[in-house]
Amino acid sequence: MDAAARAELDRLRRRVYGPDAGATSAEIARLTELEAVAHAAARPTTGADADTSAARITPPRGVATAPARSRTSAAPLSQTPPATGRSAAAPSERGGRTARAVAVGIVVIAAAAVVGPYLVRLLEQRAPERTVVIEAAEAYTLVRDPDAIVLERIPLETDYDQHLVPQSERPHFPSSGEVNWAFSAGTLYGWEVWLGGVDGVAQPVDCIALRRDDTTRARCVNAVLRGQSALAATLPYDLIPAGDRPAQMTPRQRIGLWWTGGDTGVMVLLADARE
Predict the structure, then answer these.
(1) Around Cβ 274, how many Cβ atoms within 10 Å?
(2) Which residues, in sequence order, are CB contacts of 105 under 8 Å at separation 6+?
């Protein structure tokens, strides 16, 4: 191996194993090729001079090497090998297999160094989200409670249904079909408030969702029946952080967010918990 190839090999080793490792797939492939050349050049030509002509190869960091045998402790060359059913490989064959094993190991280690961080980020992005679907009875008892108190209304933009945020940002809406739009209406009582529109199996579907950390509480109904279908999501007392609860709320009450039939916004209600 000439000086230029040796310099390139050293540079690629730093790219793959150095503190600022960031090798591309092409650089990894080239490193494997140069490592194979380097090992082939260092391979002994005969068994007799293997101990004196073999070059010392520094393995990658973290790869253990077996201690070299001294010439005085080696078995005589004329010693008959133990019967194993097959003849021992010639020194040159053993050297070839070693070079190939080292080259394969380098590719595996380099690939792990390059791909590992991306896999970690991918797993973080795909962290499981627990979705609790609000039952019809939970929603209907909220909107039909004559003693429910209206705490406030969340106004909506006139063109809220023109928004579509990336899938990684919006919560899961419990309805089959493609999400046509998704709109964040802000944070209330420690929970994000989301509205969304989905292509349902037979017709468009409207959804309301409340998300906190990895938990979403949501309900979806047919868009044309939104006014009669109690499109509401609820929060029981123990799911609201203590510092975010309304001052008058008691443990036997719940907060409900009801997206009514009109486009006047989302009504926020304080009502008794469903028995």
Answers:
(1) 15
(2) 60, 63
DSSP 73-101: GSPPTTPPPPP-SSPPPPHHHHHHHHHHH
d(CA 205, CA 179): 9
CA distance 243 to 189: 8
Predicted confidence (pLDDT) per residue in 43-77, tens digit: 655 444 444 333 343 444 443 444 444 434 444 43
CB 143 within 8 A of CB 232: yes
Question: What angle (nearest 5°) sits at the alpha carbon of residue 227, between those of residues 221 and 232?
Answer: 55
List the one residue out of 137, 274, 151, 154 whose CA is nearest residue 210: 154
Query: Can you spell out the DSSP letters for 111-178?
Result: HHHHHHHHHHHHHHHT---EEEEPPHHHHHHHHT-TT-EEEEEE---TTGGG----TTTSPPPSSSS-
Strand pairing category for 215-222 and 130-133? parallel
Q: Are 27 and 16 in contact (CB under 8 A)?
A: yes
Each residue of 95-139: pLDDT tens digit?
A: 556 556 555 555 545 544 444 454 444 434 444 579 999 999 999
CA distance linking residue 196 with residue 107, whole number of Å:
46
Instruction: Name, in order, each residue with C-beta under 8 angstroms of 113's C-beta and a sequence gap of 6 or more.
Output: 16, 17, 21, 23
